[in-house]
Amino acid sequence: MSTLSPQPVAAEVEFITERPIDIEKIFHDAHRPGAGGIVLFCGEVRDNHAGKAVKHLVYEAYTAMAEKVIREIVETAIKKWGLQYAYSLHRIGRLNISACAVAVVTAHAHRKEAYEANQYIIDRIKHEAPIWKCEYYEDGTHEWGKNC
Amino acid sequence: MKLKIRTYASVKEVFGESFELELDGVSTVGELKKKIISMRPESAGLINICRFAVRETIVNDKTQIKEDEHVHIIPPASGG
Prior knowledge:
The complex is a heterodimer of chains A (148) and B (80).
Chain A: E1 16-17, H1 23-29, E2 37-44, E3 48-49, E4 52-61, H2 63-81, E5 85-91, E6 93-96, E7 100-108, H3 111-128, E8 131-137, E9 142-144
Parallel strand pairs in A: 1-5
Antiparallel strand pairs in A: 2-7, 3-4, 4-6, 4-8, 5-7, 8-9
Helix pairs in contact in A: 2-3
Chain B: E1 2-6, H1 9-15, E2 18-22, H2 29-39, H3 44-48, E3 51-54, E4 57-59, E5 70-74
C-alpha cells in the first residue's frame, strides 16, 4: 500500500523551460499507486485572439522569480489537497500554434481533489508568476498580453 | 546611488531591456518609481500597474533600496 503523506517538490526540479514540453513524460511521472485520479492540463497556443489571427507567440520570464513562485504554488497545492504528486512546467521562447505553453499535472486518491488542485495551480500561475506572452499576428503587428 | 534596472514585456519596449541609473536623493522603491516615470511621463499608467522586485521578491514603495541593487520591473503577468 502506498504512502498517503504529501511529498515536497525536490530541490533540483525546474518549472521553466526553453525546450518543447514533453507532455507524455509529465503524465508518466505523475503515476502513483495510490492515486486514482490524475488530471493533466495543457495550455496550448491558440491561432486567434480578439478577432485577430495569431501567427506565433513569444513567452518571456523573470526566470529566477518565476521558478520560486511556481514552486511555492505547487507546494501549497500539495499540502492543501494532500496530493500524491503535482508538477507544472512553463515554456518560454517562441511557440507555434498548438504548442504546449504550460502543463500542470495533479495526482490524488480521488478525481475531485485532483481537478480542484489543478485549477488552483494554473489560475495562480497565470496571475502571479512573472511570465509574459507576446502575440505576433498575421498582419505583422504584435502585442504583449494583458492580465487574464 | 547606482542601480541596475531590468525590464520585461511592455515595459521593455518603452525603456529597453536594462539600464543603469545614478541617483541622488532616492532611497526607496516609491522614489525610484517616480524617477522612472519622470524619465518617460507617458509611461506613468504602465509603471503604476507594475510591481517591483529585488532578489526574486516583490517589494513595496516603502522598501529601502541598496547601492548596486538589481531592481526588476514586473508588469501584470500574462503567462499560461
